[in-house]
Automatic annotation (TrEMBL), chain A:
Domain of life: Bacteria
SUPFAM superfamilies: P-loop containing nucleoside triphosphate hydrolases (SSF52540)
A GO MF term: ATP binding
Family indicated by similarity: Belongs to the ABC transporter superfamily.
UniProt keyword annotation of Hydrolase present: no
PANTHER family named in the record: CELL DIVISION ATP-BINDING PROTEIN FTSE, LIPOPROTEIN-RELEASING SYSTEM ATP-BINDING PROTEIN LOLD
Origin species: Pedobacter mendelii
ABC transporter domain segment(s): 2-233
Gene3D superfamilies: P-loop containing nucleotide triphosphate hydrolases
Protein name: ABC transporter ATP-binding protein
Nucleotide-binding is among the record's keywords: yes
UniProtKB/TrEMBL annotation, chain B:
Compartments, as annotated in UniProt: Cell membrane
Residue stretches making up the ABC3 transporter permease C-terminal domain: 303-421, 683-792
Main location (coarse class): membrane
Lineage: Bacteria, Pseudomonadati, Bacteroidota, Sphingobacteriia, Sphingobacteriales
Stated name of the protein: ABC transporter permease
Protein's membrane topology: Multi-pass membrane protein
Record carries keyword Metal-binding: no
Length: 234, 803
């Protein structure tokens, strides 16, 4: 589903190129759950942003669903956001002026999903994530873990084929983090959603089935996870 | 989406209540000023639009200096009555040409059978063709034949109702007295025309056809001046007609000069030149013969209302871009959720539309409330809902709404929608934060406006003070002007003189409120001078209380004073030379001896210079027959004496009520227009300044808030509160000082031009400039410090935790 060939990214300052990513070549297939790991500043977020088309690589080709998207026009890119990609952020990034319900509804409105369909999907998600009681609250009335659940629910609302998550549990304590990871695993296993996450935690990485280890912008290691661990049901 | 966006907009407004209030309230005030102005402009442009046929009516204008206030030639709307026949004969495009006597202003006395006489103004004497030219709708009588016969009268509906209580008044008669001892003429009512509820430049309560104006004077050297209107059957080429008119006018003048034994070159010299033209009736109101037209009159007010609106729009834009930090995350998230840039722009435009709409509603309420006050102030009948032009106004409001929404909303919307989601979502709002330069520019612009206005108010204040305290050169209190003609020895004068409390009874052709200037050429020391001549009775100069500079003023002791002596005013004396008393000058064949020089006195407002004037008590220089009967009383409490005068009048002229005004009132009236305009300007300016400051207040709040984290860190690093306040002040102070530097020359040029309109004016004062600068700096520092202090004294830990 994703095909990266020779991706490079550098920032030049005063004529000197500072490479963030070099020779990144890899393939990610439908249904994979990939964890990107590596030291701070190694280029993990940059790679994820390129995968999410939030940044453009300076060199190389990037095919998404068999289509070259290295330099896609805005309209096409937004179409992909609407139909195929869901983002989950470390800082949740819910819209403060919207209630839980409205936050989840927003992407559906952009996708122009009909109102009854919208209502049933949101009801489904609220139910699944156990936040029905919270639907009329504003983000600042929720705990961090709850906010991240809403963030994931929002990402799932448009039924994307892939979820990109940059340190989704970075701001959470371990119990909440575990809950989120189990949720990801379940989504990956039961609904076949491709998940790519950036994480610092070895433990979180084990929930997935593949680890990309990045150092100084180069993929140092690409390995399947040792003991795929089945977590409890959420 | 629309509904959700509305909700977000509402929640945002609610979250930032104070700024929303400043935004919407400010905009409402700016809009109110502007809408009032629009209503006024609508009124002023609606003259002579009450019938589509008025498009084809034209007014004739002759270029001459007869009875102009400055004795200079102007395109006058009163013409030699002979022009009517000339135009009718030579311009075939005109179907009808009608002559209308000038509106003399004071009105006629109307006497109905048993009722008391009443003064009614705006009777216009016309020839029989008036209604053939003007398409008034007849409720009674026949439009085309009503005034065919002499001594007929057609009433306006409102006058008919006022006099008779009904419009069914055909063939009734009313007695009309045109002056105090007029035996009266019985006029037969032959028609009643419907009122028009839009303004007319040929204003009348009744059209009368006396027959006086049907014929031109027989003597070639006699003139009657009247207004002339012509109607064409269709569209005509005005330039073409005017070219022809000019030509036939010159030919006519040449021919008449031959008969009058004057040469063309002699007559047209010193800037005088022949001229005759037509202008469309619908342009008459906007082009008065010599007054400032309403367009020029309201120019400063237009400018200030635009400034006012601009200031409120700038507040709006600044607060919106400042707020955009808060909205950055929303934009970033929405972008990755799949929102098009266009959708985001629409969302933010919607928000500004919402606020504009709210402002517009408040504005409409304010206009409703203020309209009576405003109408009263400007002495115009403005209406809003009941207006004939409601559709027009709705379109104007809609246009204003769209314009303001875009002006206020587009820039912030554009800035916001341009946020790069990666930067914003990384938490790096600052680097994604655009538009600081623009905002600073707008703050400077706003302060330029505010400072310029403060300077303007200061200069105006000093000039008004100067004028209010300036000596008019004559004593205007205890002086009453009865509107009637008068000659020494007249019965009424003799009777009034006997009343206790009356000091002088006199007349003059030059009096504040009613001046009739007569230009003339005099020769002194073989040199010719253009002067203004005024005819007075013996007691006029003492009655006015003028100051004698040298020689004497007229007195009964000197027989020759009624024959060939003259008094000059200072300006005339300067023109002629030194040591004038006792010297002779010539006017044509006649010689006059100068017996005295008096100090200049103002008989018009201070915007006009005093003309070089020669005063005479002689029939050689013309009659003192303008309608000024001047009565000076002994004491300030002259009411009882005045009532005695009125009683005496009533005894002699029972059928003509006495019309009078105090010269003090006439003086106030001459100042009124300027005063009223000044009040509006000051009011609008003060509002603009206050709005600018409110904007600055809100903006500095945002700035302080935005830098909360920075302030907290600086404090942890050891900065004192004062240092932090200074830091926040510095950026604003630079802007305010920059604005001051730019304002000074602008204000200087504008106020200098304004002062230029006064013949008597102050030198450019320095104080308003200094005060404006000091005030603006102090207020800006105060406002910003207030906010900065709040931010500075906060416990830094709170701020950092919050982040
Ligand atoms: N706009 C930029 N200009 C210059 N350098 C940049 C820019 N954005 C990122 N970098 C550099 O790119 C490198 C990789 O950044 P990136 O955010 O991908 O790291 P990361 O692996 O996600 O680190 P962390 O684990 O701390 O989040 C860093 O060295 C950073 O300094
Ligand atoms: Mg990172």
């Amino acid at each position: 589903m994703i095909e990266l060939k020779n991706i490079e990214k550098y920032y030049s300052s005063k004529g000197i190129k500072h490479y963030v990513l070099r020779h990144v070549t890899t393939t990610i297939k439908q249904g994979e759950f990939v964890s990107i790991m590596g030291p701070s500043g190694s280029g993990k977020s940059t790679l994820l942003n390129i995968l999410g088309m939030l940044e453009e690589p300076t060199y190389g080709t990037f095919e998404f669903l068999g289509e070259d998207v290295t330099s896609l026009n805005e309209r096409k890119r937004i179409e992909l956001y609407r139909n195929h990609i869901g983002f989950v952020f470390q800082a949740y990034h819910l819209i403060d002026e919207m209630t839980v319900y409205e936050n989840i509804e927003a992407p559906l409105l952009y996708k122009k999903v009909g109102s009854s369909e919208r209502a049933s999907r949101i009801a489904n998600l609220l139910d699944k994530f156990n936040i029905v009681a919270k639907k009329d609250l504003f983000p600042n009335q929720l705990s961090g873990g709850q906010q991240q659940l809403v963030g994931i629910a929002r990402a799932l609302a448009t039924q994307p084929s892939i979820i990109l998550a940059d340190e989704p549990t970075g701001n959470l304590q371990s119990a909440q983090a575990e809950e989120i990871m189990q949720l990801f695993q379940k989504l990956n296993k039961e609904e076949g959603i491709t998940i790519i996450q950036v994480t610092h935690s070895e433990k979180n990485a084990t929930y997935g089935n593949r680890i990309l280890n990045i150092q100084d912008g180069v993929i140092k290691e690409d390995s399947p996870t040792q003991a795929p661990q089945m977590g409890g049901v959420v | 989406m629309f509904k959700l966006n509305l909700k977000i907009a509402w929640r945002n407004l609610f979250k930032n209540k104070v700024y929303a209030a400043i935004n919407i309230g400010g905009l409402a005030i700016g809009l109110t000023a502007f809408v009032l102005l629009i209503l006024f402009v609508n009124h002023e442009t609606s003259y002579d639009k009450w019938s589509p046929d008025l498009k084809n009516i034209y007014q004739l204008r002759e270029y001459h200096d007869y009875s102009t206030p400055d004795n200079q030639p102007h395109w006058m709307q009163v013409n030699d009555s002979r022009m009517a026949a000339l135009v009718r004969d030579k311009i075939p495009q005109f179907k009808y040409v009608t002559r209308i006597d000038q509106d003399w202003g004071d009105g006629f006395s109307v006497k109905l059978a048993n009722a008391d006489p009443a003064i009614v103004d705006h009777f216009r004497d016309t020839d029989s063709l008036f209604f053939k030219v003007f398409p008034y709708q007849f409720l009674q009588g026949d439009r085309f034949t009503a005034i065919n016969k002499p001594n007929t009268i057609v009433l306006k509906q409102s006058l008919a109702v006022k006099l008779f209580g009904t419009v069914k008044v055909l063939n009734k008669t009313i007695k009309l007295l045109m002056w105090r001892d007029d035996p009266g003429t019985l006029m037969t009512i032959t028609g009643v025309v419907a009122d028009v509820n839009m303004p007319e430049s040929v204003k009348f309560n009744a059209i009368i056809h006396t027959g006086n104006i049907d014929k031109d004077p027989e003597q070639i050297n006699n003139f009657r001046h009247c207004e002339i209107y012509a109607s064409a059957s269709g569209k005509i080429d005005i330039t073409q007609v005017n070219r022809t008119l000019h030509k036939i006018y010159v030919d006519y003048k040449k021919a008449s000069f031959v008969k009058r034994k004057i040469t063309y070159a002699d007559y047209y010299k010193n800037g005088k030149k022949p001229g005759l033209k037509i202008i469309p009736l619908q342009k008459v109101y906007a082009t008065p013969s010599f007054d400032v037209s309403w367009v020029d009159r309201i120019k400063p007010i237009v400018a200030i209302s635009i400034f006012l609106l601009l200031v409120s729009v700038i507040n709006f834009v600044n607060l919106a871009t400042a707020q955009s930090v808060q909205r950055a995350k929303e934009v970033g998230v929405k972008k990755v959720l799949g929102a098009y840039k266009k959708q985001l722009v629409t969302q933010f435009l919607l928000e500004s539309a919402l606020q504009t709409l709210a402002a517009l509603f408040i504005c409409i309420i304010l206009v409703e409330v203020l309209l009576p006050v405003f109408s009263n102030h400007f002495d115009v009948k403005l209406s809003f809902w009941r207006s004939e032009q409601l559709l027009n106004i709705s379109f104007q409001l809609l246009g204003l709404f769209v314009l303001i929404t875009f002006m206020a909303g587009f820039y912030p919307a554009w800035i916001l929608s341009k946020y790069n989601p990666v930067k914003v979502l990384k938490g790096n709002y600052e680097s994604g934060f655009k538009g600081i330069a623009m905002r600073n520019g707008l703050v400077v612009l706003q302060f330029i406006i505010a400072v310029t206005l403060i300077i303007g108010i200061g200069v105006m204040y000093q000039q008004t003070n100067f004028v209010a305290n300036k000596d008019l050169g004559f004593n205007r209190d205890k002086l009453v002007n009865i509107s009637t003609y008068y000659r020494d020895g007249d019965l009424i004068g003799e009777r009034i003189k006997k009343i206790t409390g009356v000091k002088y009874v006199a007349t003059t052709t030059q009096l504040m409120g009613n001046t009739f200037n007569v230009p003339s050429e005099i020769t002194y020391n073989n040199q010719e001078h253009s002067v203004n001549t005024v005819t007075v009775t013996m007691d006029a100069l003492p009655a006015l209380g003028v100051q004698v500079l040298s020689g004497r003023i007229f007195s009964l002791e000197y027989k020759k004073d009624t024959v060939n002596t003259a008094v000059l005013n200072e300006t005339a004396a300067k023109l002629l030379g030194k040591n004038l008393v006792g010297k002779q000058f010539k006017e044509g064949e006649n010689s006059f001896q100068i017996v005295g020089v008096i100090k200049d006195y103002n008989n018009e407002g201070f915007d006009k210079a005093v003309l070089p004037t020669v005063y005479r008590v002689t029939h050689l220089g013309g009659m003192a027959s303008t309608n000024n009967l001047l009565v000076r009383f002994d004491s300030d409490n002259y009411k009882p004496a005045l009532m005695a005068v009125e009683a005496e009048w009533k005894k002699i002229y029972p059928d003509f009520p006495m019309i009078y005004t105090s010269v003090e009132d006439a003086f106030q009236k001459s100042m009124e227009a300027t005063h009223k305009q000044m009040q509006i300007i000051v009011l609008f300016s003060v509002i603009s300044v206050v709005l600018s400051l409110l904007g600055l207040f809100a903006l500095s709040t945002f700035m302080a808030k935005r830098r909360t984290k920075e302030i907290a860190i600086r404090k942890i690093l050891g900065a004192s509160n004062l240092e932090i306040i200074n830091m926040l002040n510095r950026s604003f102070l630079i802007l305010v000082i920059l604005a001051n530097l730019i304002s000074w020359p602008i204000a200087f040029i504008i106020t200098k031009k304004w002062l230029g309109g006064f013949a008597y004016r102050i030198d450019m004062p320095f104080w308003p400039f200094a005060i404006a600068t000091i005030t603006s700096v102090i207020i800006a520092v105060f406002t910003v410090s207030l906010q900065a202090r709040k931010a500075a004294v906060n416990n830094p830990v709170d701020a950092l935790k919050y982040e």
